[in-house]
């Protein structure tokens, strides 16, 4: 049997899986994540561990710069549901959570306001709805890279199956392959993978999402 580690970029995989399955809020359950992830394995493979990388939902209060109103993210329905998702996932067998941090990096103009400016129309006065908080993930890619390197350098697994479409993963993939660990990528339903990403992997496994 080949010992396999499943490394899941949560923001990429869960969003894609939930969207393609039509889940409430476009987000799957912990059970759907684990079952669909394991479905790409072959009969000769056994799970060493499922590593899931993501940030917990943003729960701070921000002040809208237009009207100075408060926006409490902990009161949003997605905050409660996403926290419950993490709690469920973390209790499942062979699952290791790797948490990054979600930080607010100022405010950005809404797409509708940008389109209006680019159309040549006279600019209108900004309203509170014309801006939104710019939330940025920190530490997720770094944690994936560290685990790929650790698994490969310590010869912990024979294969790594990576659920990510991020080109930043290429250096980690190359390191693992140089150390003799096979690395496979996952094509999630209709979502295409970049050619420069797949050419550095040992293969691509297709996953058709199942409810």
Describe the structure.
It is elongated and about 65 Å long. The longest helix is centred in the middle third of the chain and has 14 residues. Helix 7 links the parallel strand 8 and strand 9. 33% of the residues lie in helices and 31% in strands. It is α/β, with parallel strands linked by helices and 211 residues long. The two termini are 28 Å apart. The chain is built from seven helices and nine strands, in the order E-H-H-E-E-E-H-E-H-E-H-E-H-E-H-E. The protein has one domain: 5'-nuclease (Rossmann fold, 3-Layer(aba) Sandwich). The model has no long low-confidence stretch (mean pLDDT 95). Helix 5 packs parallel to helix 6. A seven-stranded mixed β-sheet has the order 6-5-2-1-7-8-9.
Give the total of beta strands: 9
Largest sheet: 7 strands, mixed
Order of helices and strands: EHHEEEHEHEHEHEHE
CATH architecture: 3-Layer(aba) Sandwich
Summarize the structure.
The chain has 211 residues and is α/β, with parallel strands linked by helices. It has 7 helices and 9 strands; from the N terminus they run E-H-H-E-E-E-H-E-H-E-H-E-H-E-H-E. It has one domain (2-57, 80-101, 137-207): 5'-nuclease (Rossmann fold), CATH 3.40.50.1010.
């Amino acid at each position: 049997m080949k010992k396999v580690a499943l490394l899941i970029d949560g923001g990429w995989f869960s969003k894609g899986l939930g969207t393609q399955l039509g889940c409430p809020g476009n987000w799957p359950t912990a059970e759907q994540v684990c079952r669909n992830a394991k479905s790409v394995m072959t009969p000769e493979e056994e799970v060493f561990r499922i590593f899931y990388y993501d940030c917990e939902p943003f729960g701070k209060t921000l002040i809208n710069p237009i009207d100075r109103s408060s926006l409490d993210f902990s009161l949003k329905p997605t905050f409660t549901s996403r926290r419950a998702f993490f709690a469920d996932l973390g209790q499942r067998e062979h699952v290791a959570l790797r948490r990054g941090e979600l930080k607010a990096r100022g405010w950005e103009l809404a797409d509708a306001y940008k389109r209006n400016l680019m159309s040549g129309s006279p600019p209108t006065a900004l309203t509170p709805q014309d801006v939104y908080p710019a939330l940025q993930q920190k530490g997720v890619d770094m944690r994936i890279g560290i685990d790929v390197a650790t698994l490969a350098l310590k010869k912990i697994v024979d294969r790594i199956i990576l659920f990510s479409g991020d080109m930043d993963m290429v250096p980690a993939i190359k390191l693992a392959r140089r150390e003799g660990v096979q690395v496979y990528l996952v094509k999630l339903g209709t979502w295409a993978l970049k050619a420069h990403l797949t050419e550095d992997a040992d293969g691509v496994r297709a996953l058709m999402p199942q409810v």
